[in-house]
Amino acid sequence: MGNKYSGLQIGIHWLVFLLVIVTYCAMELRGFFPRSYRPGFNMVHVSCGITILALMVTRLLVRLKYPTPPIVPKPKPMMTGMAHLGHLVIYLLFIVLPIIGLVMMYNRGNPWIAFGIVMPHATEANFDIVDMLKSWHVTLAKLGYFVIGLHAAAALMHHYFWQDNTLLRMMPRKRS
Predict the structure, then answer these.
(1) Backbone angles phi, psi at 126, to 5 degrees
(2) So where does this one cross the membrane (predicted)?
(3) What is the largest CA-CA distance in the chain?
């Protein structure tokens, strides 16, 4: 076992990172554009969300198959436990958040677009479900800012304060 994650794991990690940025920006920045641009922003948001879901499930399966490279020097058990909890929250958040979004879009009862394709929808809208799911989707998305910030702060603390290889394990390999 090496001292880094596999190239596939590293690639998925950074691709999800970029997609999360695009997904959040699609919603946060849409208000700065004319209302006629909203369907485009929504399509980008939904398409990125679906891609994040697929990549997170793939990443989880890959993580179950390949062992995690060791942290050197080895952290205290409490730190390891906190890291496992943090990763569990990240996996749950970025799997559950897109699923809620998809169920919400389906239950609106009108056509919606992902990847430029009209997606299936319920024959009749259920706005009680849509409103409840939207509330959860927005709340979890806001929680995402906090979780992402903690994740980044923890990686930087490991690198600069505890001076271990946690951050380096997820950095892309240098080309020779």
Answers:
(1) -125, 90
(2) 12-29, 41-62, 82-106, 143-162
(3) 58
Q: Residue 162: what pLDDT? A: 95
Q: What are phi and psi of 112, to 5 degrees?
A: -140, 160
Counting Cα atoms < 13 Å in the Cβ hemisphere of 138 gives 8
pLDDT tens digits, one per residue of 5-21: 999 999 999 999 999 99
Please answer whether residues 23 and 45 qualify as being in contact, where contact means their C-beta atoms are separated by less than 8 angstroms: yes
* Per-residue pLDDT, 175: 72
State phi, psi for 34 to the nearest 5 degrees. Answer: -60, 150
At residue 20's C-alpha, the angle toward residues 135 and 159, to 5°, is: 120
Helices (H), 29-71: 38-65
* Cα–Cα distance measured from residue 30 to residue 41, given in angstroms and rounded to the nearest whole number: 6
Query: If you ran DSSP here, which 8-state letter would residue 159 be given?
Result: I
User: What is the pTM assigned to this prediction?
Assistant: 0.94
- Ranges of residues in the chain whose predicted pLDDT is under 50: none
d(CA 61, CA 63): 5
- Residue 112: strand pairing partners: 119
